[in-house]
């Protein structure tokens, strides 16, 4: 299997969570707005919609391979920020909540690594970036 096929598969897998999560935030922002308000940030509902729009558009960019280097860096920063802002410290609730928060921080940091790698290697040959000449296919 060629590296370009592997990059395409990775892009599909890495896009799924943000496309779905962004869509859910845009159609029902209440839960996200509650988390944002709970973290002490202002304009929670507005920020929930902004986060949903960002996640949906960034996920679609990764899926289609459009501006993947930029999207990768932005998603990496988003993952680190949300992991720290919304899931630390671990000791903030019941034992189950603490365990889930620890898992979420690890997931977010791990995803940040994947998005940094994607930003570094680019979208691959099977992408909009390649079609418009922004990616030198191997």
TrEMBL record:
InterPro entries cross-referenced by the UniProt entry: DoxX (IPR032808), DoxX-like_oxidoreductase (IPR051907)
Keywords: Cell membrane, Membrane, Transmembrane, Transmembrane helix
Compartments it resides in: Cell membrane
GO cellular component: plasma membrane
Family of this protein: Belongs to the DoxX family.
Name of the protein described by the UniProt record: DoxX family membrane protein
Pfam families, per the entry: DoxX
Segments crossing the lipid bilayer: 5-24, 36-63, 70-89, 109-128
Membrane topology type: Multi-pass membrane protein
Major location (coarse): membrane
